[in-house]
């Protein structure tokens, strides 16, 4: 291979690596599956955005779209409250943990035993957060 084509290959690889990070929209969704008609209150934010306080009834879902930060620092965190749990803090999307795990999106189920997250790589729901005792 001569130099110009090597450079071309390098450029193509770099574009291929950076476009998904810059342009891909990801979706986060959080669903109340507490059952028994239980409501929950959810407040999610990043350093730049406050997504507001939402009352979610049993079966309701709250979600939003975002693009990963070019600097790889994207973090959305939430505070959650329901009958048995006060001010539970968790990360709904953290670049380091979720960039690969939540390929196109992060889905969460809020259940009476804790919080499940969908692993986009395996397609399995994983039990990620226990409620505090
Ligand atoms: C749940 O929230 C709705 C309003 O969205 C309210 O009408 C209902 O009474 C609440 N249920 C309980 C059990 O607090
Ligand atoms: C993106 O990164 C900047 C700084 O690196 C940070 O201030 C901002 O909160 C990040 N955005 C999100 C959505 O995490």
Automatic annotation (TrEMBL):
Superkingdom: Eukaryota
A Pfam family of this chain: Self-incomp_S1
GO biological process, one term: rejection of self pollen
Keyword presence, Iron-sulfur: no
GO cellular component: extracellular region
Keyword Nucleus annotated: no
Signal peptide as annotated in the record: 1-23
Subcellular location field: Secreted
Keywords tagged on the record: Secreted, Self-incompatibility, Signal
Family statement drawn from the similarity comment of this UniProt entry: Belongs to the plant self-incompatibility (S1) protein family.
Protein name: S-protein homolog
Record lineage: Eukaryota, Viridiplantae, Streptophyta, Embryophyta, Tracheophyta
